[in-house]
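Q: Could you write out the predicted structure for this multi-component system? I'm mainly interested in how the pieces pack against one another.
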Amino acid sequence: MSFQKSKFHHPRLPVNDLGLTYRDYEGALSTLCAGCGHDSITSAIIQACHEQSIPPHKVAKMSGIGCSSKAPNYFLNKAHGFNSVHGRMPSVTTGANMANRDLLYLAMSGDGDSASIGLGQFAHVVRRQLDMVYMVANNGVYGLTKGQLAATADKGVKNKTGELSIFTDIDLCVMALQLGATFVARSFSGDKKQLVPLIKAAISHRGFAFLDIISPCVTFNNHPKSTRSYDYVHDNVVTGAIADFVPVKKEITSDSAQGGCEDICLHDGSIMRIQKITADYDSKNAMKAIVDIEEHKKKGEILTGLLYLDPTGSHFHEINNTTDTPLNQLDQDTLCPGSRILSSINDSFR
Amino acid sequence: MRKTDTSSYQHFLKVVDCQQACPAHTPVPEYIRLIAEKRYDDAYMLNWESNVFPGVLGRVCDRPCEPACRRGRVEDKPVAICRLKRVTADNKGNILHRLPQAPFKKNNKRIALIGAGPASLTVARDLLPSGYEIILFERDAKAGGMMRSQIPAFRLPETVLDEELDYIINMGVECHFGEEITSLKNLLQRKFDAVFVGSGAPTGRWLKIPGHEKVSTHADTGINWLSNVTFDHVDKVANSVIVLGGGNTAMDCCRTAKRLGATEVKVLVRSSFDDMKASPWEKQDALAEGIEIMPNYSPKEYVFEKNKFVGVLFEKVQSVYDPIGKRTLKATGETLLVPCDFVLVAVGQDTAYPWIERDIGLEFNKWQQPVVNKNSLQSTVKQVFFGGDAAFGPKNIISAVANGHQAAISIDLFCQNKHPANDRPESAFNLISQKMGIHEWSYQSKISHQERNLVPHINWEDAVKELKQEVELGFDEQLALEEAHRCLNCDVHTVFEEKSCIECSACEDVCPMDCISFVEYNPDSAISLKEQVLPQLKVSTINPQQEILVSDKLKTGNLMIKDEDVCLHCGLCAERCPTGAWDMKKFVLSNIASTIKEKQ
Ligand SMILES: Cc1cc2nc3c(=O)[nH]c(=O)nc-3n(C[C@H](O)[C@H](O)[C@H](O)COP(=O)(O)OP(=O)(O)OC[C@H]3O[C@@H](n4cnc5c(N)ncnc54)[C@H](O)[C@@H]3O)c2cc1C
Ligand SMILES: Cc1ncc(C[n+]2csc(CCOP(=O)(O)OP(=O)(O)O)c2C)c(N)n1
Ligand code: SF4
Ligand code: SF4
Ligand code: SF4
Ligand SMILES: [Mg+2]
């Protein structure tokens, strides 16, 4: 058995601004099933963080319960992390973000974790616009508990044991759009060309960024009746626009901006470059995105790519007017300014 | 679609770089695995079959396999392949019963061998079991060629050599020791079905600088002097000795002089230290024994004062390199007189063919080397074959062995009235799955990160006291096992099957070396496959020496590309593959000797 991956790496691996290779962003060797889509998401996250030169110790990996929620163990082993109770990742992340707004919150959840037991938590963290990257590995089943249908499974599909999905499916992207998320995208674990730029943009985005990533469960949901199998997704994925991420330091060349490209400037100065595939694609119209998603679904297609982006939206700390200094850095005197200040506050209520 | 052609063994042999680099294509990783299993007899026999002298070569081989070893691409140093070969010889039991057992059923063909060096003896060993009668002529009193006469016993003990020579001689060689062939014409009249010339390159070169005519009593060629030491014609040397030259002969000369009691030994060489021809380990050993190596000195004159030899005059030179790396020596004008009592000239050696008449149809080229077909080693006299140093000038033992195998095949074909060059057999090959169960392989797939082990040796002060005391002690079992685990099992290939691949990219994601990439490819594009594919590889700068494996079109139209260059053969790709599209398969050649060919 080889539960070890050699520390040898390619002698010509590129290093990033921090002098790190992508191998420095890895975690433990995955114990997920061979061929699980979640492992591809892991490697996309590693690639995105490496290329963005994210200092691993400035990241908190948050997750709930599920195969997908195990994934943070397999990337960024030098980052902080919290593997919470099933469906409770959003509230734990909210708490952590309140205490330390300086960290990058990379959250990894599953469609069971977020659309079933954690649906309430999911809805509220979107509403609150918490500054985080919220990723869901969407495989249409509860992988960890052996393949029961998840709430995201399309109505009318069957799981591996033949159980029919009889209820309306939940589309988390549609919910996120309705609830005011400022960054909403859908992608496919098997398409890193699309996924990596989206993760990078989600990291650069300030505010709540939601990424629903179709991620086939090879063991329990890769059969011919599934709409989350590798073959089905390969055959039925469509995209409205190709979104490329241009980091801050890269000079923007005018000729590549030609040819129907639209550039959206993100909070940190990086650029999301959109190249339309369908003429009526519009990254600024949440209502239209919802309609597009549903229309494609009717045709049996899965619409992927950047669905909606508002780089100017506010996030929780701004809305709530919290202090710029992370709470965990405030000292006793600042937090507890003494009886004189307290009485002046009390006086103001009289 | 230009899927990589994997129908011949060549594709797979290329990935086993050590085996490919070994002139005799010794199955290195296989014998290293056998060592790891402590199956020393099996490991020895596997070596014996391909390189004939494992105990000898495990000590003194030139080791072209080691610079080729893929381990050197992922860390500092290659696997100590040569030292591991010695481990098989040191730890084997009695293997006599595993050798081909004489008497063999005769085929009534008589083959004459000239010289009893490694080339001739390999021919003998390969042909005897098929019933050939082998008649060997050697001018020395014993077999071995330069392995005995020139390579000093402190590197290669006589007992080791004798044992491996006897394995062959006892298979039934008719030996004529002390019999020098002085006329090939006469020999050819003695009704041999074929003649193999393995007479080596026995003549040491002199340096024809001023004073050369007078210096003979104060100088000798290195190879002549070394054989005189071996055969006890020389047992002492002057106090102060200088050695001219920077090759392995120079290293053996200086170390031998030290052992015969010279108090001051210097090696002066025209090249820089790094460019010296001697193997790095021989230079290190010489330095460790207190020998001074002085690079960048070109000999100018043997200096005599009042008819008395006083030393050698040198000019300091500088190596300058042109843009393609070709070296020229630039004189600096600075000179140095190095006083000494005795000079050993180790600046090269040549073949010598005064005994081959020039009117028998045997053609020589302008360098006075016989003209031979490089694959069959057949000369222009069709029953005469050449091999080893005799054919191509001074090389090394393993090349002589490889030539021996080639010539044996040729002679066998020739004696059956087949064409030695055109009718050569091809090797078949097998790919055997190493899968034992889920995540279980029949080889150690876990990568050891252990650094190369140094071979233990006797202490350097004692080493120079005894002429015949072997310096290296060889690996003990623990070091041997540790070193064996460093091998990356490059003969266990990653074999890909397009039709099972679901393109989940699990292999691409897990590979620690970024060997695997799934890429888009447009067959209708005017842009070549290479140009389309290379920029998409995970690490796009490829090693031009190594080919990339290109798959057939996959379901999505994409291609799988594997860059073999730095693959660790760790099997993670196959373990991570949900459908078994990757398997780890051991590559086995059925006829290694037939794969020895002229390097293209
Ligand atoms: C000092 C020195 C050190 C070396 N060290 C190494 C080393 O560490 N590793 C390595 O791989 N190689 C080494 N070599 C090279 C190696 O010894 C030779 O390349 C190798 O022995 C060549 O084998 P061969 O069979 O072609 O010929 P040889 O070994 O040269 O054998 C030729 C034989 O033919 C006999 N012979 C010649 N002419 C006649 C004739 N007319 N009639 C009858 N017999 C004849 C000779 O006596 C000799 O025994 C070294 C060489 C030298 C000089
Ligand atoms: C409170 C609680 N209820 C139920 C479970 C059982 N359980 C574990 S994982 C899981 C579903 C996970 O599904 P998903 O989030 O889609 O992850 P996947 O394994 O599919 O990636 C469930 C129901 C649990 N661990 N805790
Ligand atoms: S059960 Fe499914 S989701 Fe879980 S690790 Fe296996 S393939 Fe992945
Ligand atoms: S690692 Fe082993 S098999 Fe690979 S080249 Fe080196 S010795 Fe040969
Ligand atoms: S065996 Fe497979 S996983 Fe291991 S280095 Fe080679 S290609 Fe990569
Ligand atoms: Mg799930």
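A: Regarding packing and overall arrangement: Residues 375 and 598 of chain B are 6 Å apart (CA to CA).
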